[in-house]
Amino acid sequence: MENYTMEGRTYRYYGQEAPLYPFGYGLSYTTFRYRDLVLSPPVLPICANLSVSVVLENTGLRDSEEVVQLYLRWEQSSVPVPRWQLVAFRRVAVLAGQETKLSFQVLAEQRAVWVQDWRLEPGTFTLFAGGQQPGQKTRAPSEVLSARFGVTGTARPLRGC
């Protein structure tokens, strides 16, 4: 095999074509609402980690669990990257009518791209938080919130942080 590119060979690199059953696909016995997605800081140095918080509310009549998923999208990159990449997830039990605030850390290494070595690049990124992949079409409603953040500095190898 001479061509090791993942383009067209895995769902992460299919371009605009959606997979038949995206990650997080499924139904629930209740409904959830996401709100107050906060990224801190909104602009961070190239080697810094990102703090994320989001509020999850069970708006249904039954106690249930939700798998909260965070996805990262590079707005511009020097090399091909996935449309979005899963960077964190957590299964959370929420009682009917209750809410909980969740906190996550997105590590600098999760923004690294492969350019003969793992590298961190400055630029603009979008973070998605919800109960499913961004853009997923399902019969059960599930919100996916998004917020942008910036990374400043000069590109460098990940091991240089």
TrEMBL record:
Reactions accelerated catalytically: Hydrolysis of terminal, non-reducing beta-D-glucosyl residues with release of beta-D-glucose
Designated name of the protein: beta-glucosidase
Stated family: Belongs to the glycosyl hydrolase 3 family.
UniProt keywords, alphabetically: Hydrolase
Entries under InterPro entries matching the protein: Cellulose_deg_GH3, Fn3-like, Glyco_hydro_3_C_sf, Ig-like_fold
Organism: Edolisoma coerulescens
GO molecular function, one term: beta-glucosidase activity
Presence of the UniProt keyword Hydrolase in the record: yes
Entries under Pfam families matching the protein: Fn3-like
Ranges of residues in domain Fibronectin type III-like: 66-133
GO terms, biological process: carbohydrate metabolic process
